[in-house]
Amino acid sequence: MKYLKVLYVQVIIGILAGILVGWLFPSFAPTAKLIGDTFINMIRMVIAPVIFFTIVTGVAGAGDIKKAGRVGGKAIIYFEVVTSLALVIGLITANIVKPGAGINFSQGATTKVAEITAEAKAMNWGEFFSHIVPANVVDAFAKGDILQVLFFSILFAIGLKWMGNSGHSLFVSFEKINKVLFNVLKIIMRVSPLGAFGGMAYTIGKFGFATLAVLAKLMFTFYLTSILFVFIVLNLLCRYYKFSLWKLLGYIKEEILIVLGASSSEAVLPSVMQKLTDAGCEKEVVGLVIPAGYSFNLDGTTIYLSMSVIFLAQVFHIDLSIGQQLMIISILLLTSKGAAGVTGSGFIVLASTLAALKVIPLEGLALLIGVDRFMSEGRAIINFIGNTIATVIIAKSEKAIDMKIYKKVVEGKETDK
Q1: Does residue 77 sit within a domain?
Q2: What is the Cα–Cα distance from 12 to 10, expressed in whole angstroms?
Q3: pLDDT tens-digit map of 22-55
Q4: Rounded to 5 degrees, what are φ and ψ at 252?
Q5: Residue 387 sits in a domain of what CATH number?
Q6: 391 phi, psi to nearest 5 deg
């Protein structure tokens, strides 16, 4: 019975119960969605203030503003390299396996496709970077816009740093508020099994298992590619920086399961920030890399996008040339940066990418609508794992991690004699 008190065991039970209830009682789906959405909203409630106070106390208390700029620069370069690898791997795998071969397209879900297409057209990718600067700070916090909050937090931290000793009392107050927010987070995480239950019950109840049969080859290809990406590409990076991927995954297993149930990596953003700080990573690095990664380092979403474009091309018997596939890579390098860790955003980005390509009919999205939710969990998990690994790597490259604490907390090794 003592195992039932462990959070990740409770989350597993919640996921299994959700699958069972969704399968046996599909009419429960609307209520399940309400449960899942309520949990996500509880997390979103604290995301903006947690990012703000973590970054302000991290940067202002670090003693080196130049370091923050260096960390940000390293993070962006790392994100671009790794997501580019994910893009190429997704394209190559889809070309080899050909998950779209032999699938007959039948028009369906036209209303839903029209809605998604309209949303995609409304997205102006040329304005993505200018959007980082908020026109209204209060609005940025109200909407929970991670990049805008991140931008303002860095400026605020620099302003507080310039105050010198006169800003010390405010700095101390912010540290106390930050501790209160993480205590609030601990309370919220107690109900995460219920959130995982709601999310999974909704997915199974709404879409059912029958949807999986039609596009099983695409799903299998996507999940296999994602697993290989984590355990080959990311594992090699972990080995190069001399830390264990397996131990790190074990350390964040509760968060992985919550992401699986909630189908959103946003559900664990504050929690993983706290865990990485507890593991010896400097608060300044964690506060900068994790929030930025949620918009710029979406490995799972990138694999999904590249694979889906090739899949739809195969369905419509469109033979894409090498030049066209290079164009896909260049477009996705931009559009994938706009997909936040929120459920369903990857689908809208896919629509905008197809609209930009003007080669593949947008009607093909109808094929993916039902199965998209079943791949959303995979995207979110890979995104989450990728950002966690990125934070440890950048912290190590900056010598901004206490490896004695890391070895003890994450790997269970006592390094002190």
Answers
A1: yes
A2: 5
A3: 888 989 989 998 998 898 888 888 888 888 888 8
A4: -110, 25
A5: 1.10.3860.10
A6: -65, -45
